[in-house]
Amino acid sequence: MATQQEPAPAIRVRGMEKSFKDLHVLRGVDFDVAQGSIYALLGSNGAGKTTIIRILSTLLRQDAGTASVNGFDVGTHPLAVRQSISLTGQFAAVDEILTGRENLVLVARLRHLAGPGGIADDALAQFNLADAGTRKVATYSGGMRRRLDIAMSLVGNPPVIFLDEPTTGLDPEARKDVWQVVRTLAGQGTTVVLTTQYLDEAEQLADRIGILHQGRIIADDTLAGLKQLLPPARTEYVEKQPSLEDIFLAIIGNNAPGR
After folding, report:
1. How many other CB atoms are found less than 10 A from the CB of residue 233?
2. Mean pLDDT computed over 118-129
3. Which of 89, 142, 160, 187 has the greatest number of CB atoms lying within 10 Å of its CB?
4. What is the C-alpha separation between 145 and 246, in angstroms, rounded?
């Protein structure tokens, strides 16, 4: 009886190394990312998370090892990789002089897509920005800019998206907005690679988590699998007090206008 073959991973990295002069940042990184999943890459500042993303998005060349994205080798087929991905960096790459809709239309035209106006309108609706679409981006809040930035990244429906610390500097409410966007992406079949310093972000979003330390992935598993690495702690009943984030979100509510 024939068995169903497992689909190839959307991303495969083997033996990736990268140095900057005497600084050896990556020392043999290995990991896979399944299609349509959210993979969180954790690590302290300077661990090499952004370096990995830059290599996978063809902005930087590795010194050794191999990497493929959507079935294309990043070294030998960089154009095919670029056509398969989108990258959202740590800071929103939006034009503040233009409106939200004009930003989206511009990206659609740069990608030579038919019907850029309709594409822009659909994206504004998907990311809950329709009411702000005709406003200049300079008037947007941080969370709105980040949602617009991700919407721009998704014009053309790339199968793989890289989010490099997408919630850095955002307030708790805006972080929740971005989390919902990421969940929606994965639900639609997009493969998401997320770098973050926030452990709660990885807990909330990731199907699988890779921990980068001293240039290598030292752990790569589901959250449940990672929890098995530590013995359960003995606990006594303690009344749980709400966190400041819980209080903040409860006070302002989850449907405040103009976010």
Report:
1. 5
2. 92
3. 160
4. 24
